[in-house]
């Protein structure tokens, strides 16, 4: 069940499995149906899956534990089950290291980077991505290296460090297979690496704040205008401080 439904979270395998269904529905509809079927199955079996995972670790079935975590991660990501994701993958990381499964260790470190990235735990995410990169480079896993480089690009993009994001995405393109979904996604990001909507939204907020301050100055409400300006300056200072920390 878990192995079959996990195919729904891989774009290539999802397309292949959906194409095999005996259905008159369009391919995209089949893929969406398969995705929803997988999510529902994992949701119903979630408690049992976590119990089975813990049992496997206790019984020292380390290779299966590492593989099992890989099957569960996309479900946890889709449902934002951060705690389940982190707990299972920390156990999988320990299992990979005990069994000297370097490929599994590198893959699990990348997935831990993703969960920390999803929660805004930037430094932890970067540390795990970097460990994953070291292992994948040692193993000669070019595609895996490209995936992690791409993930670092997404992390820095989320932190508005677009120059770093572009640098990592360009590095990822040299490693990923050009026909892979990851390469295609990065190619799209590089066409427009700066989030236009975010820039417009921030510009609109600045304009509204300036209008509010100007209105209160014209009405003689000096204290309100001063407090608004102070709050705005404090917010900008805090954001600049966060960006400087991220550039260290």
Helix-strand layout with pairing:
Layout (H helix, E strand, L loop, with lengths): L1 H5 L4 H10 L6 H18 L1 H13 L3 H18 L2 H17 L3 H17 L3 H18 L2 H17 L3 H12 L7 H11 L4 H23 L3 H25 L2
Helix pairs in contact: 2-3, 4-6, 5-6, 5-7, 6-7, 7-8, 7-9, 8-9, 9-10, 10-11, 12-13
Q: Could you tell me the strand content as a percent range?
A: under 5%
Strand count, sense and barrel status of the largest sheet are: none
Broad shape:
elongated
Sequence stretches where pLDDT stays below 50 over 5 or more residues = none
What is the average per-residue confidence, as pLDDT, rounded to a whole number? 85
Structural class assignment: mainly alpha
Provide the succession of SSEs. HHHHHHHHHHHHH
End-to-end Cα distance: 45 Å
Number of helices in the DSSP assignment: 13
Cα-atom radius of gyration: 23 Å
What is the helical fraction, as a range of percent?
Answer: over 70%
Task: Give a count of the beta strands, DSSP E runs of length 2 or more.
Answer: 0
Short description:
With 248 residues, the chain is mainly α.
């Amino acid at each position: 069940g878990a192995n079959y439904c996990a195919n729904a979270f891989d774009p290539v395998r999802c397309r292949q499995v959906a194409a095999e269904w005996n259905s008159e529905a369009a391919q995209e509809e089949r893929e969406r149906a398969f995705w929803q079927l997988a999510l529902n199955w994992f949701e119903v079996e979630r408690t049992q899956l976590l119990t089975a995972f813990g049992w496997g670790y206790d019984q020292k079935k380390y290779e299966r534990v590492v593989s099992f975590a890989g099957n569960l991660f996309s479900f946890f990501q889709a449902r934002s089950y951060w705690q389940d994701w982190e707990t299972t993958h920390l156990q999988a990381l320990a299992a990979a290291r005990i069994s000297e499964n370097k490929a599994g260790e590198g893959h699990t470190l990348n997935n831990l980077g993703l969960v920390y990235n999803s929660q805004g735990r930037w430094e932890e995410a970067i540390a795990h991505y970097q460990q994953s990169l070291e292992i994948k480079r040692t193993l000669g896993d070019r595609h895996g290296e490209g995936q992690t480089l791409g993930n670092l690009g997404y992390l820095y993009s989320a932190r508005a460090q677009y120059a770093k994001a572009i640098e990592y995405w360009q590095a990822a393109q040299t490693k990923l297979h050009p026909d892979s979904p990851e390469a295609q996604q990065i190619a799209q990001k590089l066409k427009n690496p700066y989030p236009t909507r975010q820039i417009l939204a921030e510009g609109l907020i600045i304009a509204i704040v300036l209008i509010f301050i100007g209105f209160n100055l014209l009405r003689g409400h000096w204290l309100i205008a001063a407090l608004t300006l102070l709050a705005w300056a404090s917010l900008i200072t805090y954001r600049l401080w966060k960006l400087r920390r991220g550039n260290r």
